[in-house]
Amino acid sequence: MGENSNSGTVPDAVHAGRSTEDAVQPQGHAVRTANLWKIYPQEPRPVEAVRGVDLVVENGEFVAMAGPSGSGKTTVLNLLGGLTGPTEGTVRIGGQEITALSDRELARVRLKRIGFVFQSYNLLPMLTAQENAEFTLLLRGVPARERRERVRNLFDEIGLEGMEDRFPLKLSGGQQQRVAVARAVLGEPDLVLADEPTANLDSATAEALLDVMEQLNRTRGTTFVFSTHDPRVMERAGRLIRLVDGRIADESTPDGA
Amino acid sequence: MVRFRTLAWLALRNLGRELRRSALTAAAMAIGLALLILSRTLADGAHEDWIDSGVRLGAGHVTINAPGHRDSESLDDRLTAAQLQASLAAVADGPTPDPPLASVRVSTRGLASSPEGALPAWIVGVDPAVELAFSRLGEEVVDGRYLEDGDRLHAYIGEGMAERLGVRTRSRMVLTAQAASGDIEGQLVRVAGIYRTGVEALDQSLVHIPLGTARSWLGVEGATSVAVLLAHSSYTDEVVEGVRDSADPADIEVVGWPDTHPDLYSALKLDDGGDWAFHFILFAIVALAILNAVFMSVLHRQREMGLLRALGLSGRETGLVVLIEGILLTLASGIVGVVLGLAVVWFFFRDGLDLSGLWPQDFNFGGVAFDPVLYPVIEVKHVVQSVIMTVAIGLSASAYPAWQAGRLDPAESVKVE
After folding, report:
1. Which residues of B88-163 form beta strands (DSSP E)?
2. Between chain A's N and C termini, which has fewer beta carbons within 10 Å?
3. Nearest CA to B337 among B25, B111, B113?
4. Chain B residue with the nearest C-alpha to that of A74
5. Residues B337, B379: one domain?
6. Domain count, chain B
7. How far is A141 from chain B (nearest CA, A)?
8. Do both B240 and B280 map to the same domain?
9. pLDDT of residue B68 exceeding 90
């Protein structure tokens, strides 16, 4: 899979079905991979989890990766996020090549350029919703007043007003996942990687969460890349990439392109 | 700095979240430290008591005599009157806060005899008033009294000697020894009192007589030795050095109690070694408990560790969070342990720890009668050593889990349920 047809421009699909009045659509690559391989050395045979993936995600895209279990979706996300290193190939985030970086440099890239949303909420249980959401800002040395203000504004925007002081165990699954989304986008990263974010949510909550992420994509221009089995996510995606056996099998947009 | 503060804050919040686990781990360390402090202070108290007992019955913390006297025990190797005065002045000018007690002695080996028999004797002429404050002998009276100022032809003897010679208080007996002139001279004395130390060798041979009587009987003007009793054995080396520096080494010999009581010194070193071995075992157990608690905590929070990595912490910083948790736990344990340890020590200050039920009666070793009631003594150096040992063990036990936390694979860790 080479650079796709959307390379260098914001794909039409990103705009499909949405108002353009409040949309923010920055230009450039959020992610670009070249010949990405991930092989796990296992007995009796090494497992080729990702096999030669070439992928470009433009800034402001809302991309879903689908595929059967074991197709390599989560591994691709981990490679994009620098959580694991490739066996071969390169990953660029916002133009920066990350595969050769040290652990410390990778940590800085994750802090400043990438937001994560995981399937199992993954909030820090000893911190309140406010503290969870502002955690990356705290690590970046953003002053407390600014952190509070940004969290309050975002919480108001995504329906979490009044939840700031609650600990994760006192929040519903949907609320926890919204806090995780808030944490992922508050630092204004180049890219948010969401690994099956709706998998543990009921339909209504999942729809609401998708509304939130779609809204953030539209209003803030945040780039989202999902891995998912959920048809609701696929329906809303600006571009749908299908992975099979670690390779990109095909991709499509809502307009059929 | 901001980042370190954030990591410390995270560590603190982690400890607060698992308050019961944190408290149990800290309690194990604190109790271990408190036990260590109690054990050290009791051991220090017992050791000081043994030293005190040994030097009071013997040659003091510091002994001054003429060169060669310790080997020859001869009156020929004695301090002249001038050397004696110079030595006493040097002791009085010493570094101790209070002037030490110096007992001037004239001693010789001889024979104690009565109509019923004779025994070898270690005869010591002493100033009764000084010796009463110096020696424990005066406290060990079983019949009669200790020597008093004004006594002339009196002797204070041990129970063993009294039994062997068949004498009692007010009985008369004869002491015979070689005088300074080289002649064998006899001295008739009356038994003023009988003591029992529990140390058989002393009870059968040590005889105190007035210093004036010894001088005139043996023809000695100065003294054979000056025994110096200090407020604490730790001053020994300083006083020895001070007196040595004040005199010509050809005139006097100055030695500390380890040289005059080598058996006692060896026994203390042996006991110290045993104490450290015990403490090492105690803390190895505590260290394993801490290691287990912190390590289990890391495994339990593997997903959180992975999440921290995903959110922008490096492996080293993630490990640092765990290490800071260990440091905070250790500091808290150290403070609580010291307070708890000193509180227990304070409890034993008044009445001591009575081990008389466990010890045989008249238990003695190396010329020292052991007191079965142990009183703690706080030696700051040893308390600081105990705290350092606890902190070192706490940190060591946290270091491995911290290292493991730093090495976790973030991609795998975030998947752990």
Report:
1. 101-114, 117-126, 141-144, 154-158
2. C
3. B25
4. B411
5. yes
6. 2
7. 6
8. no
9. no
Is residue A41 less than 8 Å (CB to CB) from chain B? no
The per-residue pLDDT for A253 is: 84
Of B258, B284, B317, the position where a domain reaches its end is B258
What pLDDT shows up at residue A3? Answer: 35
Contact A174, A201 (CB under 8 A): yes
**Residues B46, B70 within the same domain:** no
Q: Is A191 helix (H, G, I), strand (E, B) or coil?
A: strand
The answer to whether B138 and B146 are in contact (CB under 8 A) is: yes
Do B119 and B232 have their domain in common? yes
The backbone region for B248, taken as left when phi is positive above 0, alpha when psi lies in -120 to 50, beta otherwise, is beta
ipTM for this prediction: 0.84
pLDDT digits (tens, 9 = 90+) for B134-185: 988 888 899 999 999 999 999 999 999 999 999 999 999 999 999 999 999 9
B-side interface with A, Cβ within 8 Å? 2-3, 6, 10, 13-14, 16-17, 303-304, 306-317, 409-411, 414, 417
**Tell me: the pLDDT tens digits for B177-236?**
999 999 999 999 999 999 998 888 889 999 999 999 999 999 998 899 999 999 889 899
| Same domain (yes/no): B19, B44 | yes
**Before A44, cis peptide (omega within 30)?**
yes
Residues B248 and B126 in one domain: yes
Boundaries of domain holding B300: 2-54+265-413
Q: CA-CA distance, B127 to B211, in Å (whole number)?
A: 5
CA distance B191 to B203: 14
Beta bridge partners of A252: A240
The pLDDT of B384-400, averaged and rounded, is 84
Contact between B318 and B405 (Cβ < 8 Å): yes
Question: Chain A residue with minimal CA distance to B19?
Answer: A126
Task: List per-block mean pLDDT (blocks of 10 residues) for chain A, which spans 257 residues.
Answer: 34 34 59 94 90 94 93 94 94 90 93 90 90 94 93 88 93 91 89 90 85 87 91 91 94 76
